[in-house]
Amino acid sequence: MAEELENKIKELIVKRLKLEIKPEEIDSSAPLFGTGLGLDSIDALELVVGLEQEFGIRVKDEEVGKEIFASVNTLAGYVKKKQEEER
Amino acid sequence: MKTLDIDQIQKILIHRYPFLLVDRVIDLEPGKKGTGIKNVTINEGFFQGHFPEEPIMPGVLIIEAMAQVAAIVVGSEFRGKEAKPEERMGYLAAVKEIKFKRPVRPGDRLEISVEIIQKLANLFKVRGEARVDREICAQGELVFTKGTT
């Protein structure tokens, strides 16, 4: 279940940001920004739009800390938490 | 729905001649969306060279006009607080998949509609559409930052 969500997020990242890699090439624990996947703040904005469209999650400004967007793992944890809250 | 005349626009935007590309704003919902009007005349400086035989408004200036309308939509939320010039600054951060469907010529009344679709910290993602006589001339998405970077 957790893995399924992570795969969905990887697909979202690749599709939304038009990355020229396959979703499965993303390491779930690698940093998304800077050294890892090398995303920037404009990509973060695009991901927030994607999260809202795909998962129906509204991300608030103050929540977008380094922790949530640190890796696919942390992002999946956040999505799961949000989905449970809204139930 | 609010409207803004050129005096009100100049209180929000710091752009000036020859680079103020919005004459009036209609249907303004501060912080959400708005439509800017740009009346294009043969006296525009850029028509001198673009092009002498066939005057066409440069596509990049349509993008710039979209960015200015977006800046008004965001800036009008803070109107009345007498923002300092540096706080009124904005920078274009990304231009995404803009299409140009019809050239803009002297005599055209360009209607530029923008909608803020996402905000993240000081970054804004905007969807824009420019029309003449209800016909789409350009459409696409922009990202800009507000305030000093």
Structure write-up:
The complex is a heterodimer of chains A (87) and B (149). Chain A is 52% helix and 0% strand. Chain A contains 3 helices and no strands. With 149 residues, chain B is of the alpha+beta class. In chain B, 16% of the residues lie in helices and 41% in strands. Chain B is built from 2 helices and 7 strands, in the order E-H-E-E-H-E-E-E-E. Chain B has helices spanning 6-12, 59-75, and strands at residues 2-4, 24-29, 33-39, 90-100, 109-120, 123-132, 135-146. Chain B has a 7-stranded antiparallel beta sheet. In chain B, strand 2 (24-29) and strand 3 form a beta hairpin. The longest helix of chain B is centred in the middle third of the chain and has 17 residues, at 59-75. Chain B is globular, with a radius of gyration of 15 Å. In chain B, 31% of the residues are buried.
Name the beta content range of chain B.
35-45%
Q: Determine the CATH superfamily of chain A.
A: ACP-like
Helix content of chain A: 40-55%
Biggest β-sheet strands, sense, barrel of chain B: 7 strands, antiparallel
Radius of gyration of chain A, in angstroms, nearest whole number: 12 Å
Mean pLDDT of chain B equals 93
Indicate the radius of gyration of chain B in whole angstroms: 15 Å
The CATH class of chain A is Mainly Alpha
- The termini of chain B sit apart by 32 Å
Question: How many domains is the backbone of chain A divided into?
Answer: 1
The helix content of chain B, as a percent range, equals 10-25%
Which stretches of chain B are poorly predicted, pLDDT < 50 over at least 5 residues? Answer: none
CATH topology name of chain B, in short, is Thiol Ester Dehydrase, Chain A
Return the CATH topology of chain A.
Non-ribosomal Peptide Synthetase Peptidyl Carrier Protein, Chain A
Stretches of chain A where pLDDT is under 50 for at least 5 consecutive residues are none
Count of β-strands of chain B: 7
